[in-house]
């Protein structure tokens, strides 16, 4: 087998290769644009690009913590669904920004069952009794007590506790068997003295929706509205879940005098056909 002939021509001796090498070398020594080259340009006529949006700071993302304490008053009683109602309301209140104080008032003496439920609720709470002269041992009852009077006595027991200990905050009555929106508790902290709003409820048989609430004129309550047709005499057509007030009204005489309604405490002597 014959060997290939050896080429004596060197690869670097090609004129084309030498020309390209020289052009590249010269281009490296004399660049077309240098970072220190000053161009005579009028920067005032150049269009300016919009600055990029500033990234939100950590302070802007975090809402300031609320400072007003919400005092939520809940009457309760021993019944088959008591644990379910209290647990459901506790889950809602845990989602409300603190500070919040939950006053749970038992009907009569404070029971161990209610205390056991509250210990695991994860909230700041106080468990209160609502005993009266009717609950005293050996007390004589001339006539049966109206069902509404027991709930009013429980709420009044919470008001007495708030006044006695001078607990500052916004008082709101939240029944255990109701469902509440978190937006409601955000709006409560905007109340300075007293606030009320319409409340929708289901009527007897859950076949009709009842709406009760205030009639206002420039932040003044001038009347009450309701679409309930009943013969019951009511002084205020508002549900207990339809108003909230500053707790200082319980002991501040000046604030009491400036309020036309002036009836925070509820009458616990409820008669048939009349509701305070």
UniProtKB/TrEMBL annotation:
Keyword hit for Electron transport: no
InterPro entries per the UniProt record, alphabetical: Glyco_trans_43 (IPR005027), Nucleotide-diphossugar_trans (IPR029044)
Keyword S-adenosyl-L-methionine: no
Bilayer disposition of the protein: Single-pass type II membrane protein
Cofactor(s) for this UniProt protein: Mn(2+)
Keyword tags: Cell wall biogenesis/degradation, Glycoprotein, Glycosyltransferase, Golgi apparatus, Manganese, Membrane, Metal-binding, Signal-anchor, Transferase, Transmembrane, Transmembrane helix
Gene3D superfamilies: Spore Coat Polysaccharide Biosynthesis Protein SpsA, Chain A (3.90.550.10)
Disordered: annotated span: 130-150
Site (Interaction with galactose moiety of substrate glycoprotein): 212
GO cellular component, one term: Golgi membrane
Comp. bias (Basic and acidic residues): 132-148
Intracellular or extracellular location(s): Golgi apparatus membrane
E.C. no: 2.4.-.-
Family per similarity comment: Belongs to the glycosyltransferase 43 family.
Protein name: Glycosyltransferases
Organism in which the protein naturally occurs: Zea mays
